Amino acid sequence: MPVNAPAEPAEGSGARPSRTFRVAAAVGVCCYVLAAACGMYVLAGGLSPFLQVCLWGVHGIVLALLLRGLGPTETALGAALLAVAASAAAGYVAGLAREDLTLRQRGEQVAVTVVAERLDPAEGRKGRHSHYTLERAEDGGAVPGEMETTSDLYDVGRRLTVLVDPEGEVRPRTPGQADPAAELAGAAGLMLVAVAGVGWVAWRGRRRVGGGARAPGAAGAAGHPRGGGAGGPAA
Fold first, then answer.
1. Cα separations (Å) of 157 from 114, 118, 162, 179, 233?
2. Are 109 and 163 contacting, i.e. CB atoms less than 8 angstroms apart?
3. How wide is the angle at C-alpha 152 spanned by C-alphas 132 and 122, nearest 5°?
4. 108: left (phi over 0), alpha (psi -120 to 50) or beta
5. Three-state DSSP state, 34
6. Among 24, 114, 124, 160, which is least packed by CB within 10 angstroms?
7. pLDDT value of position 235
8. Residue 208: its pLDDT value, please?
9. ∠ CA 148-154-155 to the nearest 5 degrees?
10. Whether the Cβ atoms of residue 178 and residue 100 lie closer than 8 Å to each other
11. Could you say which residues of the chain have pLDDT below 50?
12. Over the stretch 108-142, which tens digit does the pLDDT of each residue have?
């Protein structure tokens, strides 16, 4: 009875990274994506738009090279583009909450009185924002900056509590206005999309490596006749 020769190991199988190494590499790339997004958020206030675009482009190239080691080239390029776009959008959304975060960190709660109100000039169908001049209710001192709302909410003489920036760089806002929860949640969702792109590449790469390792066994199984009979048809 002929004995089948053992299947030879797949070519280059010894060079394949272990599963632990691939998981660690994917986690490292995810950390790089998060760190790059945080760094761009911090630097965005002091950089021109042109420099920001250049930095995002460099980030995309580096990310594509890193992802190329985890999965197929086409998938890596697509995921890198998705991650950069999602990270940039997350930075923009988080930037909308920058002033709210500033007031939350260093703002002082002050009881104030509305002493004057003005409306934006009418411009077609564009909504007219209201601007309020405030003074401290305790001593009548002026509050730096005007409080702005998207509609007419307060009348002159109204007393309310606002957050005031001691350095005068941010307009005063009520505690309800200075709530960055919605923007931060949106930014977190976009960053989750960016990280998911890295995970998708790693998963595709795992499928590719796993499929290659099963190929010799599958070929050997295909060589056996169905039913396991030793004899062929009678001559």
1. 5, 14, 15, 25, 106
2. yes
3. 90
4. beta
5. helix
6. 124
7. 42
8. 61
9. 125
10. yes
11. 1, 5-14, 212-223, 227-232, 234-235
12. 999 999 999 999 887 777 778 999 999 999 888 88
Residue in the block written with tokens 């004057």: 116
Q: At 116, phi and psi to the nearest 5?
A: -160, 155
Residue type, 225: P
Side chain identity at residue 165, one-letter code: D
Distance CA 128, CA 152 (A): 9
Asked whether 65 and 25 are in contact (CB, 8 A), the reply is: no
Give, as one character, the DSSP assignment of residue 112.
E
Q: What is the pLDDT of residue 229?
A: 47
Helices (H) then strands (E): counts for the chain: 5, 4
The pTM score is 0.68
Would you state the pLDDT for residue 31?
95
